[in-house]
Amino acid sequence: MKLRDNRKGGALTEVTFFVLLSVYQPKHGYAIMKFIEEKTNGRLVLGAGTLYGALTALEEKGWIMPCSSAGGRKKEYLITNAGKEVCNKEMIRLKVLVKIAEDIMEEEYE
User: Fold this and answer.
1) Beta-carbon contacts of residue 83 (< 8 Å; ≥ 6 apart)
2) I want to staple 58 with a disulfide (CB 3.0 to 4.6 A). Which of 9, 64, 69, 83 is the partner?
3) CATH class of the domain comprising 14-107
4) Which residues are CB-contacts of 89 (< 8 A; sequence separation ≥ 6)?
5) Domain spans of the chain, in order of start
């Protein structure tokens, strides 16, 4: 799977953003899938292939890293400082997008 995320300030895909958010605390693959499904009220459901492709790509970008699990065989992942920076930039981008949309929509009622 090729993620279409732009390192230089472009928009993240929704999958990427939620995977990054999910690993602010260490999680293994199944826990990541459940976290995303719960946080989106079932709107976003990832298959195993999509998830593991995303995890591989994010690890290659240095945005997440594997971490030792608490005694289990399952590989857990944790967001890196670079990944946190990417999340912060995306949150700012989304806030600006919403503000612009609100301003445009409010103009309609003036």
Assistant:
1) 20, 23, 58, 62, 63, 64
2) 64
3) mainly alpha
4) 9
5) 14-107
Q: Tell me how crowded residue 51 is: count the other CB atoms within 10 A of its CB.
A: 19
State both tokens at 17: 């953003």
pLDDT tens track of the chain, all 110 residues? Answer: 445 555 555 799 999 999 999 999 999 999 999 999 999 999 999 999 999 999 999 999 999 999 976 566 778 999 999 999 999 999 999 999 999 999 999 887 76
Q: Tell me the C-alpha distance between 1 and 107, whole Å.
A: 41
43 token code pair: 């709107």
Report the alpha-carbon distance of residue 93 to residue 12 in Å, rounded: 10
pTM of the prediction?
Answer: 0.84
